[in-house]
Design goal:
Elements: H1 6-20, H2 25-44, H3 48-58
């Protein structure tokens, strides 16, 4: 397996910036990160949404 050094990462980031542009690059990074999280969650059998939803369901309702 080839080693990926800092120079290769810089080249990949420059190419991504040229292809996507500065406005779409952050959203592309977010969607890539979300996809990786979902993939890891599917491998382990857990989902990120249940971890976020559980604390909100446990909070008691406020009374007026």
């Amino acid at each position: 397996m080839p080693n990926i050094g800092p120079m290769e990462l810089i080249v990949v980031l420059i190419v991504a910036l040229l292809i996507l542009g500065p406005k779409r690059l952050p959203s592309a990074g977010r969607s890539l990160g979300q996809g990786i999280r979902e993939f890891k969650g599917s491998l382990t059998g857990s989902t990120a949404t249940t971890a976020v939803d559980e604390p909100a369901a446990e909070q008691p309702a406020k009374r007026a």
